Each structure stands twice: as C-alpha cells, then as structure tokens.
Amino acid sequence: MQPLCPAYILHSRPFQDEKLLLQLLMPEQGRVSAVIRKRQGKQRFALQPFQLFTVALSGRSSLKTIRTLDELAPAVRFSGKFLFSALYLNELICRLWPDDMAAEQLFNYYQQSLAALNLAQQTPEQLEPCLRQFEFSLLSELGLQVDWLHDANGTALNPDLQYLWQPEQGFIVVTNGWPGAALNAIGQQDWQQRGALPVAKQLSRQLLQPLLGDKPLNSRALFNVTV
Known about the structure:
Blueprint: E1 5-14, E2 19-26, E3 30-37, E4 52-58, E5 63-71, H1 80-96, H2 104-120, H3 127-141, E6 162-166, E7 170-174, E8 178-179, H4 180-187, H5 196-212
Helix pairs in contact: 1-2, 1-3, 2-3, 3-5, 4-5
C-alpha cells in the first residue's frame, strides 16, 4: 500500500456492486483511476468533488484500489455557472492529462483555480480570467507553451500589428487578426486591456481543439453562457 497522498476527486461513477470508480488528481501520481467501496450511513455522501482528501492506494495495475480516504479540508461550494466552470476544469483534466503522469504543477494550478473560482462567486468579472489562466497553464504543462513576447520569427510582438496563431510555429503577422496589444496583455494577465478576454478565449479554443478531438465537452452543454 502506498503512503497517504493529497488528492482531489475529478469524477466518479458506479462500478460493479457497491463500488465507485473515481478519477483522482494527485501531485506525484497525476491522474489516477481508483476503485472505492460505497460509503454507508453518515458517510454515504462524503465523496465530493472540489474537496481535498488524503488517500492511500494499492494495486499494481493501472486501476488502483483506495484503502483509506480522509477529508483534509471542506469542499468548496459552487453554484450556477461557477459550478459548471469548476466541472469544466475537471473534465479538461480527465480528457487531456495522460494516465499516471506526475502533476505537481498542475495540482497547484488546479487548487489555485478552485480558490479563484470561489472568489469569483463574489466578483463574477473574475470568472473568465480564471478559466483562461487555467487553460493556458494546462496547455503549458502538456508541452504547448505560448510565447507571448515573440512571433514565429523571434521578433517581438508589436502592439500595433495583427497576428494569428499558426500551429507548430507560433504567432504570424496578418492583416486581419488579433491585436498585438491584446496578446501582450494576455501574457501579462492584464485582463482590463480591451480585447484581451475575447482573444484569449479564441486562442485557447484553437489550441484545445486538436487535443479534445470531435467529442464535445459535457460541461459546456450545462449552461448557455459558454466558458
């Protein structure tokens, strides 16, 4: 049996009799599939997403067994579009993060994003910046890091020029594209800059699409205001 490790539950579904199949996010182990027996009595509703647990796993195959699971902190409570947005983060990780690849930095990004989403429930204008920052952080961890300072030729981005993203190259100068000023602002996480949020959303969609493929994200269908 492995030692106790921090973990978040990304997804759960019934599995065989009296068991659940969980998708966990753990710093050292990454995304892990694990089976746990359904809790009974007062504990039956305790397995919640957006809550930090400690778990101990056993098993040599890719499907682990959870031997112990304890709460480390209360679950973060979301509602409405903030709940759907948090589910969106979970679904992105489940769809894109490879099995059993260490995720120390991603774990930190995820934890920070849950905290930011929680704060955004009081300041809704922070919702989109939170989502965009997580998307670009996830893409960077997957090896697709955007250079917000230079174009594909290594020339500094000019705030007065227009750019588009060329796969496997980077930003290229075009006559009708995204303002360089908006790209500079995204790189500095200056979301007050005009055009920064729409451009960030368009670019993140373009970068995520080849990784996600044709299967739509269930979390996007939960609400009319797209993330």
